[in-house]
Design goal:
- The chain is mainly alpha-helical and 77 residues long.
- The chain has one domain: 434 Repressor (Amino-terminal Domain).
- The chain contains four helices and no strands.
- It holds the Pfam family HTH_3.
């Protein structure tokens, strides 16, 4: 796979994480208070500067009341 594919996927995931957090009515600071992740790290993830580990994504999905499918692009074969 080309590196640009990962870049586009990371942009998509970052945007969905921001959307999910905001829909949950949470600020980055409020997410950090849960001790799942620090505010600086959630900022880096949302800005596409840091990768998201799967287990962290599971925790954030649970916190934001979203299924994992919310964070994956819907691609038609």
């Amino acid at each position: 796979m080309k590196k640009t594919i990962y870049t586009e996927q990371r942009k998509f995931l970052s945007a969905r994480l921001i959307e999910a957090r905001e829909n949950a009515g949470l600020s980055q600071q409020e997410v950090a208070k849960t001790e799942i992740i620090s505010q600086s790290e959630i900022s880096k993830i949302e800005n596409g500067q840091r990768r998201v580990e799967f287990l962290l994504l599971l925790e954030l999905a649970k916190l934001y009341s979203k299924g994992l499918d919310f964070f994956t692009p819907n691609e038609n074969p």
